[in-house]
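Components:
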Amino acid sequence: MRTQVGIVGAGPAGLLLAHLLRLQGIESVVLENRSRDYIENRIRAGVLEQGTVDVLNEAGVGERLRREGLVHHGLEISFNQRRHRINLHELTGGRTITVYGQQEVVKDLLRARVEAAAPLYFEVENTSIHALDTATPKIRFSHNATAHEIKCDFIAGCDGFHGICRPAIPAGVLQIFERVYPFGWLGVLAQSKPPSAELIYCHHERGFALFSMRTPEITRLYIQCEPDEDLANWPDERIWEELELRLGASDLTLHEGAIFQKGVTPMRSFVTEPMQYGRLFLAGDAAHIVPPTGAKGMNLAVADVRILARALAAYYQTGGTELLNAYSQTCLRRIWRAEHFSWWMTSLLHRFPDTTLFQQRLQLAELDYVTHSRAAATALAENYVGLPFTE
Ligand code: RFL
Ligand code: PHB
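Structure:
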């Protein structure tokens, strides 16, 4: 097989890149090691920045998002048994966020790919990449027990944190920056009306909790837990009890509906520099991870592939490699801003196992400042809704 851009991974990064390239008349082949059913039902992110929504709309895949996405003008932060609203819309000159499940974005992009009859292979095995520092890098994989090789002009490593592309870069090329947090999130989906129409981020002495949603009838809830927590420790009654305590609100009702999905996410910050080696370009979680407290992961994946698609389009139009050569640097500016914001939100809201009274007082002082100073609230708001694309 021959293609222009070989794309490993059909998450938001890989699928959106394939779509943006197709709009520019650039061919690609997408390889995914899971089944279509699996990736359409994998529960992950839920908050889309304004810029992400704009990219999806401009790319013609925003029709259902506009219909079903829940536009939020603010969020709430709870501490010391009191809730404080951050008016995102007002503080950012009219910007908003949209709650729409990542798997819905994946479904919309998959449908566009399938309707265009563009190449996409599910359940591939033994993916490996070769000759990255030549003009014809190659991807090898097997599909239905048959071995294949694709000769590409470029390879996009969109295969997430545990993928094969980043590890294929020779030792010594990449610099890794990493921080692992001493806690995780237990996330559940429940068939019940969310307690509030907006997200509530809770700082509590028993640990962090987050009240989010997917639809007006489905709530998405998170509880700070051990990084390697055993789900067996969390029967449904304990989850509701703990959420009630951490929400600490007498004016809100926590509707206890059927919990139909449970999972534990460890938390880390991770950046690789550069995000390129020869003709391999990394995008999304393959290159960087943020803890989910800032709701930035999927948005960064979208921002990366927007830059990559534009750089590849420029190359095919003019032969120029200027934008491709600048890819890492261009992306890393936004990535490090999001890394800082995600680390800051995580540090502000969680209970650290080795915390001291001094650190707890600092957290409360910062929470008080963020919820009472317009300048501090504006800093939170502009990061949360996402900085505008300037590149
Ligand atoms: P993905 O989605 O992991 O996709 C990578 C794809 O590559 C496939 N793959 C391979 N395919 C072929 N060959 C191989 N050898 C392969 N190895 C892997 C995988 O099966 C997969 O389909 O990465 P991508 O596209 O970079 O997208 C990144 C996002 O998924 C991620 O950043 C977000 O989910 C993070 N995240 C959040 N981000 C937000 O922007 N807002 C949020 O509110 C938000 N909340 C979250 C989150 C992540 C969470 N978890 C579970 C980690 C909440 C949670 C709980
Ligand atoms: C979610 O709804 O899944 C969600 C919302 C906000 C976050 C993380 C996850 O910070």
